[in-house]
Each structure stands twice: as structure tokens, then as C-alpha cells.
Amino acid sequence: MPDGNIPLRTVLVESYERLLKLLERRLLSRDLAHEALHDTYLQLERGKEIRPIEHPLGYLLKIALNVARGRQRAGRRLLSVAEIEETFDLVDDTPSPAKTVEDRSELEAFERAFAELPPRRQAILLASFSENLSSNEIARRFGLSKRMIDMELKRARETCAEAILKRPKK
Fold it and tell me: Where are the domains of the chain?
């Protein structure tokens, strides 16, 4: 089977420098232009036969530009060396079994201390943390002064914190 791409490969070889300059200007990279022309030659080498082309230089330039753009798109999808190294340096955020036991112990101590608080203090602490209400809003709800709410919150926090600190270590 005759190879109809021989004339195109010949034009590419003979006009290599001219094509390289045109590509370099469009792509803003001499290396990318070289790679595009090389890939273009390889495509012509292994490709199916192409009918005779009226403007072979323009045709080759178009092929090389398409090859270069394909390389640029593929390059954007690939990770850089720095990104790959950064991926290997990721920290495992999963808590260790010891940390899980410690956290559970703290939670149990908090729950015991909370259960021992007077009902009004429990309700005030819940309003502050669960509902994210301000001292003024809690004061209005309970019909108390802001100062009284602040004192109740302080006592509740201190009681719970003390229970957590004094809990038996597991």
C-alpha cells in the first residue's frame, strides 16, 4: 500500500525551522513547539493515508497546534512533583484508639457533672451552647438579670471543667 503521507513528512522536515518559529510564537514555548512537531511527525508516520493537501504547511501547523493544545490540557490534569510530594505528607486525622478512649472518658465526666447541676443551671448551659443564645437572650427567657446568667454559666462551666480534670485516667 503506497504511503500518501510521505509528501507531508517531507514538507515537515524541510520546513521544520519555519514551523517551529510559527508554533513558538503561538504557544509561547520553544519546548512545547518542538514536542508538538515531533508528535505531528509520529502521527503522520503511523497514521492512515491522507489525500493530497493543497496547503501542506498550514495543514501541518494546524495538526501541530492541536497536538500542543492536547498536551497542555493533559498537563493541567496531571499533578506536579510538588503536589505529589504534598500528597504523601498528608496527616492522618483519624484519632488513635488512646485518644478515642480519652475523649470518651471526658464526655462521660462531663455528662455526670452536667447531670448533677441544678435544673435551672442545666437549662441555662443548654441555651448557651445548644441554642447559641447570648446572655441577654437567656436572661429575657428566664426572667433573670444578665449578671445572674453570666454567674450561672460560669459556675456550670467550672463544675464541668473540674469534673473533666478530676476524672480517673483510663
Answer: 6-80, 97-166
Q: How far, in Å, CA of 160 to CA of 115, rounded?
A: 10
Supply the mean pLDDT for the chain: 85
Give the pLDDT of residue 168. Answer: 79
Taking alpha carbons only, the member of 66, 78, 54, 59 closest to residue 26 is 66
With 80 as the cut, is the pLDDT of residue 80 above it? no
Nearest residue to 11 (alpha-carbon basis) of 48, 63, 46: 63
Radius of gyration of the chain (CA): 37
pLDDT-derived band at 1, boundaries 50, 70, 90? very low
C-alpha 86: how far from its chain's center?
A: 12
Q: Give the separation between CA 23 and CA 16, rounded to whole angstroms.
A: 10
9 vs 7: CA distance, rounded Å: 6
- Report d(CA 71, CA 83) in Å as an integer: 19
Q: Report the alpha-carbon distance of residue 170 to residue 109 in Å, rounded.
A: 12
Q: pTM score > 0.70 for this model?
A: no
Residue recorded with cell 492536547: 70
CA atoms 32, 33, 39, 40: torsion sign? positive
Q: What is the pLDDT of residue 6?
A: 67
- Specify the CATH number of the domain 97-166: 1.10.10.10
